[in-house]
Design goal:
The protein is mainly β. The chain is built from three helices and 15 strands. The longest helix has 10 residues.
Length: 171
């Protein structure tokens, strides 16, 4: 079954590259900070262009903004270093509750909630060539760890070097 069939057209996938080591001065990466960087840094797209509003020649910038938030937010952390074929195994901290208020376009946003609750975590241990996957999921308010045939009641570590994908549900 596809994501589109499960969530309709309201799905949104964001891939965050863990390559901006200088942004964090060697500390662990923080998902909330990464989202802030993605949605608040202006990117220069054209050196000089005529503005359609004021008709002056000026630099144009692109700023990423969200117009409509999904019911389920999936954040995939790209942990592979393509140049050296290794995994970036730095610690990643992620919140139990995520607020995307600073990522929305206030002029076009529908005014719905900008808050999300963590409901799933997908992890990998090993290296880029081999390893083992396991997951955490929140079921009826309780956290469970799914590790092959073993299912135990326990929650994820919110600061881990094993996290690859985060699943948040709108609250």
């Amino acid at each position: 079954m596809s994501i589109k069939k499960i969530y309709g057209n309201k799905g949104y996938v964001s891939c965050l590259l863990l390559t901006k080591r200088n942004e964090f001065n060697g500390q662990s990466f923080d998902v909330q900070q990464l989202l802030h960087i993605v949605f608040n840094n202006r990117t220069k797209i054209i050196a000089r262009e005529i503005c359609p509003s004021c008709h002056k020649k000026d630099e144009l910038y692109q700023l990423e903004r969200i117009i409509k938030l999904p019911k389920i937010l999936i954040i995939s952390l790209l942990r592979a270093n393509k140049t050296s074929s290794t995994l970036i195994d730095d610690y990643v901290s992620y919140p139990d509750c995520l607020d995307l208020a600073d990522a929305i376009d206030p002029q076009l946003f529908d005014g719905s909630s900008t808050r999300f609750q963590l409901v799933g975590v997908h992890c990998h241990v090993g290296n880029i060539h081999s390893g083992h996957y396991y997951s955490y999921a929140k079921v009826n308010g309780k956290w469970f760890c799914f590790d092959d045939a073993n299912v135990t009641e326990r929650g994820p570590n919110l600061n881990s070097r094993d996290v690859f994908t985060l699943f948040y549900q709108k609250i």
